[in-house]
Automatic annotation (TrEMBL):
<dbReference type="InterPro" id="IPR013785">
    <property type="entry name" value="Aldolase_TIM"/>
</dbReference>
<dbReference type="GO" id="GO:0106430">
    <property type="term" value="F:dihydroorotate dehydrogenase (quinone) activity"/>
</dbReference>
<dbReference type="GO" id="GO:0005737">
    <property type="term" value="C:cytoplasm"/>
</dbReference>
<keyword id="KW-0665">Pyrimidine biosynthesis</keyword>
<keyword id="KW-0285">Flavoprotein</keyword>
<keyword id="KW-0560">Oxidoreductase</keyword>
<keyword id="KW-0472">Membrane</keyword>
<dbReference type="GO" id="GO:0005886">
    <property type="term" value="C:plasma membrane"/>
</dbReference>
<dbReference type="Pfam" id="PF01180">
    <property type="entry name" value="DHO_dh"/>
</dbReference>
<dbReference type="InterPro" id="IPR012135">
    <property type="entry name" value="Dihydroorotate_DH_1_2"/>
</dbReference>
<keyword id="KW-0288">FMN</keyword>
<feature type="domain" description="Dihydroorotate dehydrogenase catalytic">
    <location>
        <begin position="49"/>
        <end position="326"/>
    </location>
</feature>
<comment type="pathway">
    <text>Pyrimidine metabolism; UMP biosynthesis via de novo pathway; orotate from (S)-dihydroorotate (quinone route): step 1/1.</text>
</comment>
<dbReference type="InterPro" id="IPR050074">
    <property type="entry name" value="DHO_dehydrogenase"/>
</dbReference>
<dbReference type="InterPro" id="IPR005720">
    <property type="entry name" value="Dihydroorotate_DH_cat"/>
</dbReference>
<dbReference type="GO" id="GO:0006207">
    <property type="term" value="P:'de novo' pyrimidine nucleobase biosynthetic process"/>
</dbReference>
<comment type="similarity">
    <text>Belongs to the dihydroorotate dehydrogenase family. Type 2 subfamily.</text>
</comment>
């Protein structure tokens, strides 16, 4: 497996990503996953709203945008999986190249732009999944949707995935969709939150709803959103999405490319956001994500106030073995 990962690093990022995940699907279909990737022995479960997370480690949205790899990812021992971000209509995303790897810094910059196969495609995948663990769905809006149409996009996604999702994440923090982060301002998030509260009630969705936050917003803005989350009776936050601050890659010419930075350089910044939110409201459920590569990193997220932890970049760099590494 280390040899395969080394070979994949020689390929363009999106091609490597596709080959790796399709290989994982093949191993799963052949019944080889349990031999190649033994399940972790850690059984530190977490229960919230009648949902039992077998362990506290999950895969973040972005790795499996369309639900194509739910079962094979589930076979690796994750306590939960989050798919998406999904939008009502399929869209190609931004022009390529749009993923840039920084091996020395254990980082990635992506400017994908919510590329996905569309809501109806994902719903079919959700219906046919065999994975019995906790499955979250991350929802967004199409690139060309503005004003009320943007709100309608979120509502449509919520309505269609709610029968099949164990929780729903509202993504207002991707830096790669024009003006999406403007949803961090009260004048923009309040109409969205109000619409989703009504939608949640009419769809009788009793499971958790999370808001995924940017690490680049002011303390005042974050506190405003936290207060609104409680006001609109949502459940918690995911801290955090990628950052547009690329100073950790100073000196690299390609660090100037636009996009969101994930991986090791995001660790401290996402932890600061997590800690700040926890200090403001210790009872709010928090999912910590950003730069988790070691068992110590994993525990530091929990110590910073997270109840659950997600990974993305470390899975890309280290492969399925990262699951046992973090949990054992």
């Amino acid at each position: 497996m280390p040899l395969l990962i080394s070979l994949l690093r020689l390929l363009p990022p999106e091609l490597a990503h596709s080959i790796a995940l399709n290989s994982l699907n093949l191993f799963y279909a052949l019944g080889l996953s349990k031999f190649l990737f033994p399940m972790p022995v850690n059984a530190d479960s977490f229960i919230y709203k009648n949902l039992t997370f077998n362990n506290r480690l999950g895969i973040a949205a972005g790795l499996d945008k369309n639900g194509d790899y739910i079962d094979s990812l589930g076979s690796l021992g994750f306590g939960f999986i989050e798919v998406g971000t999904i939008t009502p209509l399929a869209q190609p995303g931004n022009p390529k190249p749009r993923i840039f790897r920084f091996f020395k810094q254990k980082a990635i910059i992506n400017k994908l732009g919510f590329n996905n196969k569309g809501l109806d495609y994902l719903v079919q995948k959700l219906k046919s999944r065999k994975f019995s663990g906790i499955l979250g769905v991350n929802i967004g809006a199409n690139k060309d949707s503005e004003g009320q149409k943007r709100i309608d996009d979120y509502v449509e996604c919520f309505n269609k995935v709610s029968p099949y999702a164990d929780y729903i994440t509202v993504n207002i923090s991707s830096p790669n969709t024009p003006n999406l982060r403007a949803l961090h301002s009260r004048e923009n998030f309040e109409p969205l939150f109000a619409a989703l509260k009504v939608t949640r009630a009419t769809s009788h969705f009793m499971n958790p709803v999370f808001i995924k936050l940017s690490p680049d917003e002011s303390q005042e803005t974050i506190i405003d959103i936290i207060n609104a989350i409680k006001e609109y009776e949502f459940d918690g936050i995911i801290a955090s999405n990628t950052t547009t601050d690329h100073t950790a890659l100073a000196g690299r010419q390609d660090s100037k490319v636009a996009g969101g930075l994930s991986g090791r350089p995001l660790f401290s910044k996402s932890n600061e956001l997590l800690q700040s939110i926890h200090q403001h409201d210790p009872n709010l459920i928090k999912i910590g994500v950003g730069g988790v590569f070691t068992f110590r990193d994993f525990n530091q997220k929990l110590e910073s106030g997270a109840s659950l932890v997600q990974i993305y970049t470390s899975f890309i760099y280290e492969g399925p073995g990262i699951v046992s590494k973090l949990l054992n």
